[in-house]
Amino acid sequence: MDRSDEELVALFIGETRRVCGIDVKPTWTRVVRRQMPQYDIGHVGWLERIDAVLSGLPGLHVAG
């Protein structure tokens, strides 16, 4: 989040070249800054435990 829009576009172009082996030359760019939450270590384990409990309770659904 500390990099400028120009730096992020240059990073994208460089990484696309490195990973895909192609040179991209965008005619226009737009940088949208959003952050995704970082889940704690063990988060997937919690989800698996919840699924296991819910599998024994048909008709009960959770969201959130």
Description:
By secondary structure, the protein is mostly helical. The chain has a domain at 1-32. 45% of the residues lie in helices and 0% in strands. The chain is built from 2 helices and no strands. The chain has helices spanning 5-20, 43-55. It starts with a helix and ends in a 9-residue tail after the last helix. 0% of the residues are buried. The model has no long low-confidence stretch (mean pLDDT 91).
Helix content estimate:
40-55%
Secondary-structure class? mainly alpha
Show unreliable segments.
none
Strand content: under 5%
Largest sheet: number of strands, sense, barrel closure: none
Helix-strand string: HH
Radius of gyration: 20 Å
> What's the β-strand tally?
0
Number of helices: 2
Kindly report the average pLDDT value: 91
| Distance between the amino and carboxyl termini | 27 Å
Features:
elongated; 64 residues; 45% helix; mainly alpha
Summarize the topology.
Elements: H1 5-20, H2 43-55
Please give a quick description of this structure.
It contains two helices and no strands. With 64 residues, it is mostly helical.
